[in-house]
Amino acid sequence: MTNSQKKHVGDSSTSQKKANKQSKCFRHTVEQVQHLKEFLKKCPHPDKDQLIQIGKEVGLNPKKIKTWIYNNKTTTKTQIEKSDNKTLQTENERFRCENIAMKEAVKKIICPQCDSKRASNLENLKEQNQRLTDEDEKLSRVTTTRGVDKGHE
At what angle do helices 48-58 and 30-42 cross, to 10 degrees? Predict the structure, then answer.
């Protein structure tokens, strides 16, 4: 076998098709692209006659121009979406950090442990208040009864 007859690893009919497609790739000149961009700014949705007209001016057939316009719009839209997405991600991260900071601030203001201590302290105070109120009533009765007893003597 000669070198040209040898198959290299990875060679297949699909890789040969890809190579053929790559060789058919068409690049527009800088002047054509500039002209097409200017045209697209003036007329974002050209009709068939306008495509023929611009095709004559830049030396391209209308189908290639139509494809270029489609690809250009898709690329522009994708870039805008990526930019918007990045902006939203940044804003989302900022909001997330603010949310965490607010949660921490709320924890410092109302600590769950302190809050439960307050509740138990409140219960203790209520119980103590009730006991003192009961004692006061008893003492009031005792003093009232003694005062009545002394007055009758």
Answer: 150
The region, left, alpha or beta by phi > 0 then psi within -120 to 50, assigned to residue 76 is: alpha
**51: nearest Cα among 38, 41, 36, 31:** 36
Question: Which residue in this structure is represented by tokens 């050209």?
Answer: 46
Q: How far apart are the first and last CA of the chain?
A: 144
Mean pLDDT by 10 residues, the chain (153 residues): 43 56 74 91 91 91 91 94 94 93 79 60 84 88 67 50
| Euclidean distance between CA atoms 59 and 23, whole angstroms | 21
What's the token pair of residue 28?
């527009």
Q: How far apart are CA 109 and CA 90, in angstroms?
A: 29
How far apart are alpha carbons 36 and 58 in whole angstroms?
A: 8
Which of 129, 148, 127 lies closest to 137, judged by CA?
129
